[in-house]
Fold these 2 entries.
Entry 1:
Amino acid sequence: MSTVNEKITEKIRSEAQRLLSTGEVAAFIGYEAGSLPMSVRPFVARKQEDASRLVWNSFCVLNLANYLPALLKSFEPPRRPGDPPPEGPLPKVGILATGCWSRNIVVQIKENQVDRDRVVIVGVPSRGMVSARKVKEAVGERDIQTCIEEDHSLKICGEGFEQELNRWDVVRDNCKTCVHPDPVIYDILIGDPAGERQVQDRFAQVDEIEHKSLEERWNWFADSFSSCVRCYACRNACPLCYCPTCFVDDSRPQWVGKSTEQTDTMLFHILRAYHCAGRCTDCGSCESVCPVGIPMRLLTKKLNKDVLEMYGSEAGMSLDEPLPLTTYNPADPQGFVLTEKSEKGGDR
Amino acid sequence: MGTTSEKNWEPKIVAFLCNWCSYAGADLAGVSRFQYPPNIRIIRLPCSGRVSANMILDALRSGADGVLVSGCHPGDCHYISGNLFARRRFALLNNLLEFVGIEPGRVNFSWVSASEGEQFAEVVKEVTDKVKKLGPSTRLVKRIG
């Protein structure tokens, strides 16, 4: 009796094998087993023999869409700015995509980073990914040597202990509040679609902070972001961050200082989140890769909430709808504008 | 930036004004001799759509006690829709700053047309009053040493 994930792994391998052997794709982005328990490694299969290395489990927390634009570019002949686009069909790339990853691919397509015709998307409905941090907490930070995954439980073993955890208890917060687990675009679908999930209060974590007083919010921000070491793992793991030069690396003008001083760190996190406004799909990569456990996802979640409430839009849900910040509506809310509130003079 | 000794403290407010409406409005206020507080430092930009979050946050980081961003009224933009794109961005930034605990009133947005000299003076008064009530800015200010 094999588990759901083992069945998915099996199908992923056979699909990747087929795509690579027929030459339909030149490379296939997936995961291979990591060297530590509860870890997987993003992996680009380039030969059909590589397909058997692909795996699928509950620890696939990194968003694979992150690797797509650069990998596609690597198959293009080199050209200088102004040169005409290469002629003829370019090699395709296969990629695994859950709900949020596929939405990120949609965003990348809309932002002209990815050519839809050059990607073969293998959709996998997501069952929610597990937070390794939560697992470690659940076993009291003891050293974990093996982790055996069943459909609804995790068996954690280490020196002198063995513990069984309920899988859903250690699923990441963003997956628990996810409403779109199914890929929105795909060429091949593996497994059965899960359908839209009903979530009681998807923005509960954001609401909790919004209900605090101004002082409490500032203290929350200062406390929870103070341990940042500015490693930029959150930026590097983010499929939205593909700028050739990031604002944090700019030195003229230097918008954000490079130190771990409080203001520098805060400005970095405000701007990083703000750059994801209307584009973030709450995939949780940033939070999952953070070495010190900063809840930076709450900032992007807050922006997602505002975008949904004010502009009725969620990132990457369709290829036709423009991204919310690349469009406008004359009737957009503007209660925050002084001259609209004070009604002094003027004919408006 | 500025002295913090309580009695003499006067806020410094950075105003990003669009070239076509608000800057002309400020000019009109001056030409028409409307009095307004001398606390603002005007930076002229081509359009309110040119204002990025970087600029607003950089002003705060450099010690500005308040920021004012002002552009053409919706529908009157010299570039047709620059202010409408900007409006979405400002709304999100405004909410995000409040979410992380920046006092409401530090960063302000307004629409002032080229013919609204008097209204420009009013806006500056309103913003200056607000920032005076809030006191010197301490959050997101980079202190060296």
Entry 2:
Amino acid sequence: MTVIKDAVCSFCGSLCDDITVTVENNKITKIENACILGHSKFVGMLEHDRIETPMIRKDGELVSVSYEEAIEAAAKILVNSKRTLSYGWCSTSCETVSGAIQLAEETGSVIDSTANVCHGPTALSAQEKGSPSATLGEIKNRADVILFWGCNPVHAHPRHMARYSSFSKGLFTEKGRRGRKMIVLDVRKTDTAKLADKYVEIEQGSDLLLVTALRSIINGHGDVIPETVAGVPKAEILELTETLENAKFVCIFFGMGVTQSRSKYKNGDAMSSLISDLNQHTKAVMIGMRGHYNVTGFGQVATWETGFPMAIDFARGYPYYNPGETGANDLLVREEPGAAIIAAADPGAHFPQKAVRHLARIPVIQIDPYPNPTTELADVVFPAAVVGIEAEGTAYRMDAISLRMKKLIDSKFKTDEEIIKDLTEKVRELKRGA
Amino acid sequence: MSEILIKNASVCDPVQGINCETMDICIKDGKIVESVSSNAKVIDAEGRLTMAGGFDGHTHSAGKINVGRFINPNDARKNPVPGLSGQVARTEKTRAQVGYNTPNTYAIGYRYAKLGYTTICEAAIPLLAARHTHEEFKEIPILDKMGLSLFGSNWQVMEYIRDKEPEKLAAYVAWGLRASRGYGIKIVNPGGGEAWGWGKNVSGLYDPVPNFDVTPAEILMSLAEVNERLKLPHSVHVHCNNLGKPGNYATTIETMKLFEKIKLSRDRQALHVTHVQFNAYAGTSWRNFETGAPMVADYVNGADHLTFDLGQVIFGPAVTMTADGPVEYANARMLHEKWSNQDVELEDASGVVPLFYSPKSFVNAVQWAIGLELALLVKDPWKVMFTTDSPNGGSFVNYPEAFTYLMSAKRREEVISGFSNMALDRMVLPGIDRELDFYELAIMTRSTQSKMYSRPEKGNLKAGSDADIAIYDIIPGQIDPSTEYVKVKKAFSGAAYTLKDGEIVVKDGEIEATPKGRIYWVNAKVPSPIDSAMQKDIDIKFRKYYTVSKANYMVEDVYLQKPVEIATEGVF
Amino acid sequence: MQVVKLFLKEANKIPIEADNINPDNFAGKTEEEIKAILVWYGNGQYPFGDFFNVEVEGRDSVENTKLVFEGDVSRVKRIGQNMSAGEIEINGNVDMHCGFGMKGGKIIINGNADSWLGCEMTDGEIILNGNASYYVGSGYRGEACGMRGGKITINGNARDYLGEHMCGGEILVKGNVGLLPAISNNGGKIVIEGNATMPANEMKSGTVIIKGEVSDLLPSYKEEGTVEVEGVIYRKFVGDVNVGGKGVLLIKRT
């Protein structure tokens, strides 16, 4: 029996690193400190079917093949494609992302992450206004006003409030929850909202109007505010502004309720400005509640290796970036890709129908520990070790702090990193041959 | 066993006192040696200028620069220095490149190498985010790297100072360097990072840090003493309080004076003051802003305990990035620019703001002049390290352009002729006719660094040193840098040869090979009882205040590419 | 006059990148020379003639060169990029970045245009006889300045972010526009004859005139009475107050 302490949970962007895992006979038998989601990830391998062997689609059916055969088939697909989409890469390690970027570069592909359908707009808003942020410990130790905007950590990031925000205690926040004001802004009264001191309900898609109203008041132009904005009475907005201005340290945590609502990245853009304006009066920062455990890591690695955080088109041999043009969905809806490689993601389940229909028409390579709807579309399938449990590697928390994920048990499956390396080698070999 | 013989090199190696003398250089197994066999591969330098590989002792090239890239995708396509900027497709030898001020990691390695540079020092590593810095280091090809770890607003540091625990403080710093795999102590706006945790700043050396009851001066002195106690290879590396504010030259001189009393434990400076251009401002507001360089240079000329670097401004777009959080916020508000901020729990702050230096702006023109004034008014080049604080003052790819300013009064006059009278009234540069020669330039770009960082195998061409060598397409004696600055710039923009550990990495300005570089880090030994006592204190920090566990805080060996551990023995 | 007629041989899905397909690069060239121009298609470069039949009439200077795309080119990007003079006529739909960075000359599109029409143009004219998609006259990601000069006329509708970061020039839309037209306007003039939603967010300077209905006017504008322009009475708004803006937003009084 081995007890492994300080394991990093590879579920959500909170990346809790205090998990204790007991391993007996290469099986995880006990998990301590994890939340229900994290727990399900650690025990998931026992409960879910795995992809058992590499597979290739022959006559419409996926049949088991050797690993080498699958690598050869996948490499041929990549070498022959004029426009390949490489997608996913957010539930895997930074080392894998690095390999995937190099493969995309060498094959002139477009590589994009799952941020395409979640926090991609957060990057776009940072490109407009910057990203006034802090590490989570700053919130834990200092924040006396915490605002959750369009996010629901009770369900999506269950330990967030205990470890980093509302309920945590720190040097200047010894009273924990009692010493903090917790505000939730959302379109419906979520379970997180039920825990708040103040809940503000706003009309769907009107985040930008409310952010703008807050800014106008903070900047001394309260006179331009009409009687209600975003369905919120002016008096309530004034009260909210006062709470923010009088705080010692404000943090706004924002989620997909903000990034995917009507005016998308312009919401985050305006929120950055709100934070800047608030700093004229107090201290304020904002942090995006990133979902997949390493979606932040993809953005980091891609940015240092290519200059861009996502949606990177290597067609001309150098990176080109333009979400709206080079994003995974942009390409699929336009039926551009001639092939796709998808790892640690499930566009088959999460993309719009038109995109999925195109995926069904083109050769698709999948790398994943578990079968999912994308497997049904795939032509070459690689089973992979589960990163953070069966494979080690780096991941980035939602506040851009990187942590080393441990390998807890052995696996018969190759890691994502190894698969990408072998595939890249084979692609080079085929290209040399050609 | 590989051998190279560089024949007919016009060697400029100030460490050995060699000033453009024609000689041969022998290389064996990556080191410079006295002689090689007749089997050696021969490079005929044909009388061209030959120096040790350049060493950038203060650059933002890994870590925070990623925020700069992230918020400025528009930097990727900027190409003001063709060959050293912009989008470049991958080749069989090189990865794809993008950017100008914030190039991707591969471009950083290739472009420094093209300039004949072979070693860089990342200016700021936040301890908690150190893993990230090393991840980027791994992807910067060719160059040897090191980084300075931030201690200037650290809770544990300030508490030990307040509680007068110098030994535990030393143990903590040693541990922090080990945790972050850092090379030395960086202090940015001492105390200001903590104040910024509340949206405030400290106003000077004696303004106490909120809640911690220590002053910036105490932080500086205590860390300087730790630096000597641990016998660290570099001195404390200080970004002074009040950066970017008119009148701050007084704080800078005051800071320098504090260090006069530091007793050295090894042969190097007691203090390095960084990007002094940003800290040599006179006047009391932006309206009566003027150069403070003469006062600073005056003090430096009379002092022998310090070195400094320039932070030279290059006109055009730049990206400021610093652990000085309040400065970046002020920049963003003043310039109506994008603002990124990243405060690091228990440790420090940081910010990133893009900006544009225009020769038409009198402030920018004076800033440009101040960097050069500092370089030219300080008589001893061994006290000066050339930097642009890349990319704060401008991208490092502009070094060759900046060299022409240092080497040619005529070239300076050309730039100055575009300035307003108001700008000219606020600077002293037009009255300075000093022009550096290759020898002095070599000091400021490699020799000083060798001494400053105690890396005797770097920045010189002595037998036993690393065979990091740059050959530039200039024949000393046949060129007058004072008038032929176009040729000088061209030669320094693409080395005829750059050798890294005896391997040709650049030939005729193009990348030939992309070996991996080393990582230098310092392991300072501390007696175990003191270390244990300190560990108990930080265990509390991790249990109560940090959001990561101590075990996951330490940068693991796997992140270090070709690590070189520099061991020191602390005095307790 | 030199007229170059271009016929796409076969409809394509992977876009052809026509960033060098403009009068500057065609003037004085023969049919064969034009066919030999390399264009990007996916991850490879191919002769333009692989995709297009080319007919050249006459031979003349850039100013007197006209390109005519006959039929749909909805997968040909960057037509007219950086053109300095001459004319391009497109008789069909056109793909993204048409007229990107245009410095002069004229583009007429008899069809719809995909996103980034006239992005970062500094001069010249674009007339779109159809609908436009997103980001007409805007800037590249992260850039502070989009369109700086010239004129874009859209005789149909346009989608979101029309004129984002515009620093000069003029855009006229006869139909409706989507979300956030004139966002971060810094000196441009935008006239919208139809409806608009959340116009002129963070406008620093410039003029925005909306003749149709405005939804969700942002709470960052001061109303300053009315003004009459060409016989029409408009409510006058000044802002955006959050950027200390002096921009003028005129909304037709109903």
